[in-house]
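Re-running the complex after MR caught last week's input typo. The corrected sequence lines follow. Everything else is unchanged.
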Amino acid sequence: MEQETLERLRRGDAGAYRDVVSNCAPRLLRLAERLGHPAQEAEDLVQDAFLALVRSVDRLEGRAAVSSWLTRVLLNRHTDVVRSRVLDRSRRPAAPDAPAPADRDEADRVRAALRRLPEAEHHVLLLRYFEGLPYDEIAHAVQAPLGTVHSHAFHGLRRLRALLEEDAT
Amino acid sequence: MNCPDETSLLLCAEGSDDRAAAHVHACGRCRAIVDELRGTIGSLREAVPPESNHIAGRVARLVDRRRSSGGRWIALAAAAAVLAATAFALLRGPEEKPVAAPAPAPAKDAPDTNRQDPPKLPEFFRGRATRAALVEKGGGGKIPPPPARADADTEKLIRDLLRRMDDDSAEERDAAETKLRELGATAAPFLEEGAKSESREIRGRCQRLIAALATGTTEDLVRGGLKWLAANQAGGDGSWGSTGVTSLALLAFLGAGETEKSDHGRAVRDAVKYLVAQQDPEGCVGPRDQKYIYGHAIATWALAEAVAAGGSGADAKKAAQKAVEFLVAAQNPGKGWRYSFQCGDNDTSVTFWAATGLAVAKRAGFEVKEETFDGARAWIDEATDPAWGRTGYTHKGTGKVFVPGLNEKFKHHETMSAAAAVFRLLSGGAVDAQTDATLKLLAADPPAGDLSADYYYWHMGTLAAFQLDGPAGPTWTAWNAKLIDVMKAMRAKDGSWDPTDRWCGDTDAGRACATALNALTLTVYYRYPVVRK
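Corrected-run output:
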């Protein structure tokens, strides 16, 4: 993490917070929405991430970029929300069936299949191909070794292809 | 020749590293894999969702909250969130609209030339502070002992003053009230009679004096706050800058027993007119900006109370009815509310204002089905940790919420837990172990200044402590003493409150918001009866 930014944050420099929010919020908001959160929930997740930064700023060592660290927090929060929804759904009547494949265009089909991937592969593919992040930054964000990230990308792509073919039949 | 590893094939497919290209070209198996990867990557890149049109604006809001007028609310959220820090952000008025700027000199309300007793209030809003009730329940713990019986001359003076409180001249009425206040406890037995007077004016002033005897400092604070609000209401439209703040200010006037026919009648009338004028054809009060249900919920609450107090005839009643219907319809089916119509998300801060406002509207005579409250209770239950009595903001276990660059250093409080308790009680819900847990949370974190200052928490905590513990309860008594201390300390000389707490910020909009909320908080003694059985 950039030491200068960290130092300014630790000093409680309001300007530093504004800079971090200005620089990171667009990507975080976009990512949250691409993870499937409605606009307001996406904003809450982003705010949660900035809150976590404030809480943890004294403990951060600066080994990763602030933006990568915030991305990691956002992904963790997203996982929490998804899990709580799964638990909630398990207590409610089943929702109506999703639209049949024929009702969706190709982009919808791809995004729907992406969401069916294992979480780690989903996150890596989303960060790589939707957000365009370099692999080393993705590794920081998902807290995994670089080789593991490559592996998630490789197998995620192959699994995604299989799901799309399965969906088409 | 060995085939390259997965990473090499991946990077080859992406075109970011072509060291494996020669092998892939020569190896059918690897070429098939890379072709498949390329095809899938292409599909993914074509499926990148379009960026939301509003991203830039939303980021600008996040960045600029510190400087935007009143944007710190939230939040109401509460922030909000929020308080829900973000929660109260919705109380911000239109960006381009000038916020009610302090007037050079507070203009005294013009004497009302059309004074008359209003219709009889519904039971829930009546007798907000009869001395008997205050004495019986402790009145905030500061009822003075009965004085020696007034001599004949003093009794004559007091009765004369009581009559003068119904004079046509506002100055005369104020002077009589001031004199009675100076007589203090000696006048108390006569005030009790006055509180039952046929005259609404005498009745209302006596109730205020009784409350002042119980908690003299509190009454002074309320009067000062209302006076500042009346002097700083926008002359053009009757607002205090936004739907949310105007609704809070109107609730403060109504909570203090003001009506369209009393001393601050003009302020009340203009505020009601403003809210009615803000209603769209579907019933939503205020602009449908990012978090409009917040403002609409508080406006619904205020309009319902204004109608209960005999306000603004058919227009206000019709507007309140439509506002109630819109708010009920906006609820997430079987759950609570959040920022927009049936948005699918719930938060405790918005749900408090919506559900409790509807509960009060129901007590004011508007029809609200019980299933509406059942849904809100379902959300509160879902967000509450029964082991600790803590209710979260957007889910169970949420902690501190803040606006970056504005209030991250302020202390977190159990605002949402208090709000949940108030809703449970005022909507007629059962009191259970949750109640004791909430009281303990409040007892452990009484109102305090500096980085603990949080007007939103004080509001929710005050309502909760008073309703849960009763006016003579030890938690309420201790809370109230601290509340008055910090309210005095943070009040400005002009009667307003410095917007230097966790949410209100330091602008004129913040000052109006802080003053409306704090004045409303301090009407707790007579605003609603204690409903806990």
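None of the earlier attempt is carried over here. Residues 28-46 of chain B form the longest helix (19 residues). Chain B touches chain A through 48 residues (CB under 8 Å).
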